[in-house]
Amino acid sequence: MRLFAYRDATASRALGVSVDGINFHEMAVLAPDLPQETEELLGTDGALARLAELLAVAPSGRPIAEVTLLPFLERPNALWALALNFKTHIAETGLTTSLDYPHLFLRTAASYVGSGEPILAPPENVARAFDYEGELGVVIGKPGRHIPVERALDHVAGYTIVNEGSVREYQMHNRQFGLGKNFEASGSYGPWMVTADEFGDPTRHSIETRLNGIVRQRSGLDDLLVGVAETVAYLSQGYHLRPGDMIAMGTPGALPPAEDDAEGRDLSRQFGPFPTPGLVHMRPGDLAEVEISGIGTLSNPVIADQPATYRIG
Amino acid sequence: MRLFAYRDATASRALGVSVDGINFHEMAVLAPDLPQETEELLGTDGALARLAELLAVAPSGRPIAEVTLLPFLERPNALWALALNFKTHIAETGLTTSLDYPHLFLRTAASYVGSGEPILAPPENVARAFDYEGELGVVIGKPGRHIPVERALDHVAGYTIVNEGSVREYQMHNRQFGLGKNFEASGSYGPWMVTADEFGDPTRHSIETRLNGIVRQRSGLDDLLVGVAETVAYLSQGYHLRPGDMIAMGTPGALPPAEDDAEGRDLSRQFGPFPTPGLVHMRPGDLAEVEISGIGTLSNPVIADQPATYRIG
Questions:
Q1: Which is the most buried residue in A9, A52, B108, B259, by most CB within 10 A?
Q2: Which residues from A are below 8 Å from B105, CB to CB?
Q3: Domains defined for chain B, CATH in brackets
C-alpha cells in the first residue's frame, strides 16, 4: 500500500492511499474514522492494516496523475540523514567516517518538497555545487526507546525515496554541515511511503539517480555501511523515536561516465570540494529523478531560487 | 515584555505575558483577537506592540510562580545552534572552527524542555559526559531571505536563555554531532522570551551558568566569535527564516575552579573528550541554572533518564 499527501482544485492538503501507485482513494472518504494527519495515523496501532482492508474492497479510484503531490509528513519532529554511508561515496569525497557509528545530522522540513514540486537551485553567486543525493528514506511508525537491532524493523512503518539535495560550498564552510544541508526547498521526498510489509527487506532493493535521463548513481541497498535496523537501534539509545520521523540512509557514489558523456567527463564544469568523473551539478532547467525498486520514482524539476539581493562571506 | 507558555490545573497549554516576570496575564483573556500560538503570534505584524499596549493598562495579574512553564515554541521549523562560538570554549575543547562562517547544527524540539521541567541525564552505561552549555537564544519574528547584516536585528522578535545540554561521547561518535546534541529532553530554553526592544544590544549583556549554585561559566556576550546579526544574515542566504525559529548562540568555556572547589579540580571525575578544570558534568540530583542579564534565570533539575534496557556500540 502507498500513502501520500496531495492537493487538488478542492483541497489544499489531503491524504491519499493507493494499491498500485496509479489510482487512489482519499483517506477522509475511505476511512473517515482514522486520523487524517500522517504522523498521527502512523502512530495509531492497526491503522495501516485497517486502511489496507478498506482499500482491498474499494472500487477503482481516481488517477494520481490528476493531483499535485506534497511531502506526506506534516510536522515531523526529526528528519535524520546519514552522511557517508556508502563506500563508493566515501571514496569519491575522500572524507572520513566512523565504522562503528552512523554519521547523523538533521534537516528541517522546509528543506524538502514533494515529488513533482520544483527543487530550488541557489543563484550562481551564492553557490554552484548543488548536488543530488538519491537515498532510501525510512519512516518510523511505532515509537520507542532502547530498541534492540533485532526488533528495530518493527518500528518502521514504511519506506520512501529521498533526494537529499546538498549545497557543497556551504556544507564545507565549517565542520558541521549546517546550512549546506538545509537550503530552502533544496531536496525532496516521495512520491509516497510504501508500507514495510510490501517493501520487504531493504537490502534486496536497488537505487538509481538520473539527471536529465542520464543515470548518475546506481547501487544495491545491500551496500549500506550502517543498515536500517542498526541506525534505528542506535538513535533509540538517546532519542525517543516518534511516528513520522524519517531517516535518509545516505547516498552512493557517482557512476563512472560513459565514453560519449562529455558533461560527465568534464571536471572543469564542476565546483565545490569533490570533483568526480560522472558527477554533474543540478541546475535550473534540469530534471532530477531517483528510483528505488519496490517504491517508484521521485521526480523533481530544478528551477532557479530567487536572486540573492545580498551576500555575505 | 515577557512571553511564555505554561500549563496549570485548567489548561494543558496556554500563553502568558508579563511585564516584570513576577505576575502575568493569560494571552487568550488579555488579547483574544491575537493568534494564540507563539509562531503565528510572532509572525503577525504589530502583534507584540499591541500586546504591550494591552498589558500596560491591565490590572496586576496572577503570579507566574503558580504555573508550570513549558517551552514557549510549539512546532518551530528550525532550532539552530552554534558550535565553538566563544574563544574560551574553543581553547578548552581544542577543536577547530572557521573564523569566516558560523558553525551551525540543528536540534529537534524533543531535545528541549521548559524552565523548571526536569532535564534527563543518560544512564551511566550509555554516557557520563553530560554537559551544560549556557547560551543566548535568539527568536526570529519577521520572516526573510537575503537579509543584510545591518537589517538582521529587525528580524529578531526577542531573546531567551538556552541550556544546550550535550552528551559528549555521542557527539564525538562521528564528525557530525548528530545524536549527541539531540538526546531526549537533554536541554532546555526559557523561562520566557524577552522582546528585543527591552533586551536591547545583546553584546551589552552577560551570561552565567551555575551547577548546584557554583558558577561554572561566566562571560560577556560581546565575546561571540560570530554575532547575532551576522548569523541571521548568513542563514538567510540559503534559508527562509520563519517566525519562531530559534538560534542558540554558543557557550563560553569553563571558569577556572576556586582553591576549595574539590569537584571542579578533580579531573579524574571527568569523562568524555575534553577534561577541563572547572568543568563538572550534570548528574541526577543536580540543579542547572543559566542566567542572562535582562532576561532572568533558566533553571532545571536534572533527573535520571529511564534505564537502558538495551545498548549497542
A1: B108
A2: 105-106, 176-178
A3: 2-70 (no CATH), 79-304 (3.90.850.10)
Express each pLDDT in B135-145 by its tens digit: 999 999 999 99
Determine phi and psi for A292, rounding to 5 degrees: -125, 130
By DSSP bridging, strand A246-248 and strand A79-82 are parallel
Cis peptide before A256 (omega within 30 of 0): no
Contacts of B207 (CB under 8 A, 6+ apart): B134, B135, B136, B161, B217, B218, B219, B221, B252, B290, B291, B292
CB proximity under 8 Å: B 31-50 to A: none
* pTM of the complete model: 0.97
**What does the mean pLDDT of chain A come to?**
95
Residue A146 is placed in which grid cell? 532502547
Cell numbers linked to B300: 532545571
Tens digits of residue pLDDT in B189-214: 999 999 999 999 999 999 999 999 99
**Residue B279 half-sphere exposure, CB side, CA atoms within 13 Å?**
28
ipTM of the complex: 0.96
Note whether A147 contacts B: Cβ–Cβ < 8 A: yes
| Alpha carbons A144 and A122: distance in angstroms, whole number | 38
Measured distance CA(A48)–CA(A31) in Å, rounded: 11
